[in-house]
Automatic annotation (TrEMBL):
Catalytic activity: N-succinyl-L-glutamate + H2O = L-glutamate + succinate
Protein name per the record: Succinylglutamate desuccinylase
Gene coding for it: astE
Source organism of this protein record: Noviherbaspirillum autotrophicum
Main enzyme class: hydrolase
Functional description taken from the UniProt entry: Transforms N(2)-succinylglutamate into succinate and glutamate.
Amino acid sequence: MDGLSQAVRALAQANVSGIAGSFGNAGWSVRMPASGILQLTSPTHSPRRPRLLLSVGIHGDETAPIELLGHLLHELAQTPRALALDLMIVVGNPAAIEQEKRFVDADLNRMFSDHRDAVQAAAEAVRADEIMRATASFFAEGGTQKWHFDLHTAIRPSLYPAFAVLPGVLEGARRHILLGWLGSAGIGAAILNRNPAGTYSAYTAGACGATSATIELGQVAALGCNDLSRFDAARAALAAFLRGGAPPASAGMPHVFKVAQELVKRSESFRLAFDRDTPNFAAFQPGMVVAQDGAAIYRVGAETEYVVFPNPDVRIGLRAGLMVVRVE
Ligand SMILES: O=C(O)CCC(=O)N[C@@H](CCC(=O)O)C(=O)O
Ligand SMILES: [Zn+2]
């Protein structure tokens, strides 16, 4: 961790008290409901104040968001009174971050639901419960606007280096505002996913009424090895969000996709029909076979589909990829 700023190191070690100091001194109410979770709220409790949850490290080897958030919090700590909303920071899986692995026992980002079957005994199940308790109480305390950005990085390269998944039913003004903000943050593609997912952002959207997005910023890399300049727009948009300012001028709206089908690994025979170099958003033409699982064959439907998050190494029963179609 040599060469990393103090705030980035503190976040990577889930030492959120190392970040809280200057906010507490500036009069914010500081709470740490569990390890790696920090809440900064206004002491003059105002139900009209927006609430923002920023989470990183839900997967331990996805480090660019940890670095990005470390820098944002370090900058904000110079003028802590500029924080314009009630904020919760979650460092998702500290043990996995330390081990530089996606997870220790099982994928934390499939545990934000009641359906955990075989992995109920995993270390991540305890952590998911802890995070859900803190999250539910944070959003229950107020906030006419509730936001959650769960920051990740993808395993594979992507034809859109920064993209987002928007869980649940998101329509009208909320959808328009979120897409506009994502555009200003340099997010090139947004995937609407109404399927139940067990992900953190699906939990905050469904159970807490938040406007939520999983945001993918580049690719998995070791801490300190990320080129954050590729995500300057996301950094500037988040910095403005924290201060209640207008987002920077947008490069345009993201391209919008929706999930056409999920590739689910039902057995150890599951195979993708393409290789491990195929990037996210690679196109497949109608009728093409994209995966096979014993006798079951996954084929593209009537229009071009694009593959996202293909991963044959997931546990049986989990999604091994999404096939999406362009809608806007
Ligand atoms: O690149 C990959 O295969 C995974 C990257 C990642 O962790 N993505 C999230 C997306 C969550 C969502 O669908 O909202 C995940 O798979 O948990
Ligand atoms: Zn992830």
